[in-house]
Amino acid sequence: QLQASGGGLVQLGGSLRLSCAASGFTLDYYTIGWFRRAPGKEREGVSCIANAAGSTLYTGSVKGRFTISRDNAKNTVYLQMNNLKPEDTAVYYCAAGVTIPSMVEGRYDYWGQGTQVTVSS
């Protein structure tokens, strides 16, 4: 089971750190992805991090503002979000899959329940 947390309401330019914690299995072997669904839009990939070596991918709109990291000892993956913008408002989901780093939803097998991020202007 994956549990995403850390969402909330923040002002333009603020920061949040999302966490994705696993229970019942070890995240070490999985690529972890963060996805988001904004109101009225399709879910999109935000970032992902490989199981080993920690190679990462970011969608263009968050590059330079978001940082994904993992702490395998805590069985947790983080998404540090800085300089938040209203267009970052969405429900954020984490997912785990045995895959190369990818923004393709179908490559992920396990999904968390989502955490709401709202950025006010």
Write a structural description.
With 121 residues, the protein is mainly β. It has strands spanning 2-5, 8-11, 16-22, 31-37, 43-49, 56-58, 66-71, 76-81, 90-97, 110-111, 115-120. Strands 2, 4, 5, 6, 9, 10 and 11 form a 7-stranded mixed beta sheet that branches. Strands 1-3-8-7 form a 4-stranded antiparallel beta sheet, with no helix packed on it. It is globular, with a radius of gyration of 13 Å.
In short:
With 121 residues, this protein is mainly β. It has no helices and 11 strands. The protein is 0% helix and 50% strand.
Unreliable parts: none
- What does the main sheet amount to? 7 strands, mixed
Total beta strands: 11
Radius of gyration: 13 Å
Short key terms for the protein model shown above:
single chain, about 120 residues, mainly beta, four-stranded antiparallel sheet, 11 strands
